[in-house]
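Protocol step 4 of 6: record predicted structures for both targets in the notebook before any analysis. Target 1:
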Amino acid sequence: MQIGLVGLGKMGGNMRERLRNAGHEVVGYDTNPELSDVKNLVELADRLAAPRAVWVMVPAGSATQRVIDQLASVLKPGDVVIDGGNSRWTDDEKHAEELGKRGIGFVDAGVSGGVWGLEHGYALMVGGEQEHVERLKPVFDALKPEGPYGFVHAGKVGAGHFSKMVHNGIEYAMMQAYAEGWELLEKVDSVDNVREVFRSWQQGTVIRSWLLDLAVNALDEDQHLDKLRGYAEDSGEGRWTVEAAIDNAVPLPAITASLFARFASRQDDSPQMKMIAALRNQFGGHAVEAAKK
């Protein structure tokens, strides 16, 4: 099958290679000419036979909007656009409406797999009309992991990115739990081989997972994580998950706490902890530490 692919970064570049390895013809475009197969989106559209399929793999927000706008002007009725970035599901509804006015289909695809996807495949959560999803099935089959799992047509437009958003919210909470357990183990004097404790959990325990395997990899590289600063960004999906929970009155205490923990990581001298320290001193006479000069 022929497919255009816009955005050839870490994810997009590996996806192009995996698709080509499966025998598909991929025409890639990137703003970096060293990565690109064509000079622009007009040339990309010209290289594809109608009806065309173009997969967009660029950062969510304004970058995706720009590409959607450009594709709307070069594609034709009957073509279909797939957004495989981490777009917000509400943007999907907007993009589907914009492209639909021109007779162009739209599918949203939540993609998980990161830098390991080339070798192991990508988990795909897809939203859109059945006819568009069925038409793209050969591409989805090539990208997903081997076996019966790893792909789902989650529902109508927006369902794929909404599912991926919830997936990432769960990921936040799981990582936070591993991090808290690791810190506690490192803190006590009785445990002197925390890395091997984590390794021992990889088989036979109910908390074994790929995230645990990656944690062990990280500890093998830096046993006490001394080389790292305790700072973690959030890419947006965690916030959107919490916002969706509020909108739907669904309690998400673990995911919400894990998001707030990331916010706390960015404070060298937490204002909240200043107030807590002051209150503890006031009611209990607990000692306080002077601010660093």
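Target 2:
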Amino acid sequence: MTNKFMRAISIRGGKGSADALFINNIPMPELEESQALVRIKAFGLNRMDLLQREGKYPLPPQAPSTMGVEFSGEIEELGQNPENGFEVGDEVFGLAYGGAYAEYIAVSTHMLIHKPKELSWEAAAGIPEAWITATQALYLIGGYKPGNSVLWHAGASSVSIAGIQLAKSDGASSVHVTVGSQDKIDFCVCELGVTAAYNYKTQNWASEIARATQGGGVDVIVDFVGATHFQGNLNIAAQDARIVQLGQMGGSVLPAGVDISGLLRKRVRLEGSTLRSRDVSYQKKLRDLLVEHALPKFKDGTFTVFIEKVLPFEQIAEAHQLLESNCTKGKVICSFLENRP
């Protein structure tokens, strides 16, 4: 490459509020053997980015300091030993350990997916983190089988939006969600077609789900909230249920009086997981699952990438503030497609 530097988003002082984000000139990444250099067209925002910006997200050792784990773009250069099937000029999208808030990214070809012509750059950039996390939670950890019932907490989050579509398309007997506003209830019921949605701020969601399932409970529960939902999850877990813990937005210390007897009585399996800290071979397995099960349904329109808003790269602070508002229903995307030299 003739340019040895590129524009990227950095944080003044290493951590801070959204206002601390700024456009910086940093060295271009150097390619390793199995990597591709991708010129980024768009990238997606995730809650881990907010935590990383605040200095609250421990980075895996292979992650660069630049934020961003999902993107779409065009391959400009390949390392000496890329995965078969990728060529310079290919339109791709993919998952990375970091570095997507930039004009270029060096990323393993094992984590790239060819972009179908039916998907826009912005839609493709909003797929990798949410849909791969949802695939991991539902199938690899949650052990989902057709006919199971599913509960997605944070039902209007991008991961849950993906997971709801996966579960519905794969024969779930019922899909329940919890959310924090009537607007999000309407979205989940009317747009996503969930069986029922509950406002955790105004309803006793566990009692409502127990009533709706006639006491039978839910087979697979995916939770991003943590401590405040822990007891409710156990209360509405079905016999041999699986609870997948992906976050702790509601705290990590359990309140006094939590009764864990349901773990034994119902033979509940509770497993926590992350994605970013996994090795490339694990992430490649998830990528392949996504390509096999979901990519055809993006092409034919069965699956939809819900986008809250697309902002230009230069408005990264506003993008972070929008995600922080907790009012989004779908992805916040930043794009290089406008005003790019």
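Step 5 preliminary note on target 2. The CA atoms of residues 18 and 298 lie 32 Å apart. The mean pLDDT is 94.
Proceed to step 6 after PI sign-off.
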